[in-house]
Amino acid sequence: MIEKPKIKPTIKNQYKLYIGSDNKTAEVEIGKIEKTLNQNFQGYTLLNSVGYWDKTKEKSVIVSLITDKNLNSVLSVVALLKKQLSQYLILLTQEKIKVYEV
């Protein structure tokens, strides 16, 4: 019989950023996004997606961050990305989650 490990969860913040494509090129500037995220976070997940803005389909990415950083720290990075990517807005969500590191 395999023993179940005794793992206690930690409570962390999960942030998701929804970033659309450049309005001029219709491309997502992945390199800029990765550079900024790599400078500010130990890890993240970046998912290619398709989004809609003002009834128009566009390439987009969803960034998932699970971190101990507070909202203000993340907002600073989002503001930087918004400026670097010339975005009208970047949608940010936050929730508290239980994390099990197995």
Beta-strand percentage? 35-45%
Give the spatial strand order of the biggest sheet: 2-3-1-4
Q: What is the helix fraction of residues, given as a range?
A: 10-25%
CATH class: Alpha Beta
Average pLDDT over all residues = 93
User: Runs with pLDDT <50, length 5+?
Assistant: none
Shape: elongated
**What do we call the CATH topology?**
Alpha-Beta Plaits
Give the radius of gyration: 16 Å
Sheet having the most strands: 4 strands, antiparallel
- Straight-line distance between termini: 19 Å
Structural class: alpha+beta
The number of E-state strands comes to 4
Into how many domains do the coordinates divide?
1
The CATH architecture is 2-Layer Sandwich
Q: What this model shows, in words?
A:
The protein has one domain (10-99): Alpha-Beta Plaits. A four-stranded antiparallel β-sheet has the order 2-3-1-4, with helices on one face. It is elongated. The protein has 102 residues and is of the alpha+beta class. The longest helix has 14 residues, at 71-84. The model has no long low-confidence stretch (mean pLDDT 93). The chain has helices at 30-40, 71-84; strands spanning 10-20, 45-53, 56-67, 91-99. Helix 1 (30-40) packs antiparallel against helix 2 (71-84).
